Amino acid sequence: MAVARPAPAVPAPTTRRVGGLDVPVSLIRPGWANPYLDLDDYDAESDVMALNLGPQHPSTHGVLRVKLYMDGEICVKAVPYLGYLHRGVEKLCEKLTYANVTPIVDKNDYVSPMMNELAINMTFEKLMGCEPPPRAQVMRTITAELQRVASHLLWIGTFCLDIGGAIGGGASAFMHTFRERELILEVFEELTGCRFHYNHHTVGGQRHDIPAGWDVLVKKTLDEIEGRIHEYEDMLTENTVFRARTIGVGVIDPVLAMECGVSGPILRASGGDHDLRRDAPYAAYDRVEINVPVRTEGDIYARYQVRLAELRESIRIVRCLIDDIPPGPICALKAVKLPGAVKPPPGFAYTAIESPRGELGTFVIAGPGKRGRGDPSPYRCKIRPPSYHVLSLLPYIAPGENLSDIIAILGSLDPIMGEADR
């Protein structure tokens, strides 16, 4: 009589497909706090107190209020309230011409103006079927990576201020990082004539060509910044108090991150190996190898490590390109002499770039205009900012944390409210 053999054991999957990415199963947490918790269902014996965090919190510049329900020092529910700016940037874009939009979006992510300009002008170019010349593409990549360095430097400094007394007040790291960020602003001022809001990108390319000696200035600046990164590490990486305040705090797994639409350093710190510069290259990113730093812990310390690694990677990318800027024109279109000169044909387009905070996308619908020849202004404009999605994490990760840790968590998310509340 034949004996039935047991079926061979099927090994448990080690990865899970989430949002188009394969993430290790070990990184996925079994459950999260209920963001819709009814306080009547909470412990009847507790004394829950409602506490408004902000909008004076330094990480949010006065335009974010988070209503916390606290059981003693522990948060049981967090409700973020956005909506203190109401600048109507997207509607302003619909009232202005394509040629006049760039200075408006400079103020969205006001820490990374170059990124805002690049994202929206790439969408306009897609509508027009316009390809910027190689010189402009390399210039765009260089300025984008310099802007990423400046943004991450600002984050490290202001985050240390959020931690506050835990690292001697945080002012030391703040002054160090602002010293280096000032060097980037001087580089941009030499290129554009402006220190902050540049109006440098335009439809089809760039407004300003590289001045004589600018490449030498860039390389000198990168040498100075790279030579000082070890100072931040000496102050923070092995700092006992800094590690205690960041390791294991504010953990985000890749499933929660992708369900909330989170991208950028926060996703990569949670094990999500995704970067648009490598996975969907634009500008001149196809000319250089992109190394994407990824951590799996998903906590504040991992987010710090990713941004620190991205500092060095951005410096490397700029060095790879700065000596190989091709000659030629900097714009594919004729110089714009009238505001209504740029008129893409009717249609719609979406493009996205990898900003310092994640996927920054722009969706634009071009109207037919008079006689179907194209309208000089966008019919509809929608900006997809990474900071808006990041703030949606708070109701899931704040419950269970104490008040001081919530401030550290909020600072580690690096939200820029100018782009969150447009």
* Number of DSSP E strands: 10
The averaged pLDDT comes out at: 88
Low-confidence stretches: none
Give the class from helix and strand content and strand pairing: alpha+beta
For this structure, the CATH topology is Cytochrome-c3 Hydrogenase, chain B
CATH superfamily: Cytochrome-c3 Hydrogenase, chain B
Order of neighbouring strands in the sheet with most strands: 3-4-5
Radius of gyration: 23 Å
Give the C-level CATH assignment: Mainly Alpha
Q: What's the helix-strand series?
A: EEEEEHHHHHEEHHHHHHHEEEHHHH
Largest sheet: 3 strands, antiparallel
Shape: globular
CATH architecture: Orthogonal Bundle
Describe this structure in words.
With 422 residues, the protein is an alpha+beta fold. It has one domain (89-420): Orthogonal Bundle (Cytochrome-c3 Hydrogenase, chain B), CATH 1.10.645.10. It is built from 16 helices and ten strands. It has helices spanning 89-95, 102-105, 113-128, 134-163, 171-192, 214-226, 229-236, 240-246, 254-259, 264-269, 276-279, 300-322, 386-391, 394-397, 403-413, 417-420, and strands at residues 15-18, 21-24, 48-53, 64-71, 74-82, 201-202, 205-206, 347-355, 358-366, 378-384. The strands form four sheets. The protein has a three-stranded antiparallel β-sheet. Strands 8-9-10 form a three-stranded antiparallel β-sheet. A two-stranded antiparallel sheet has the order 1-2. α4 packs antiparallel against α5, α5 (171-192) runs antiparallel to α6 and α6 (214-226) runs antiparallel to α12. The radius of gyration is 23 Å and the shape is globular. 45% of the residues are buried. The model has no long low-confidence stretch (mean pLDDT 88).
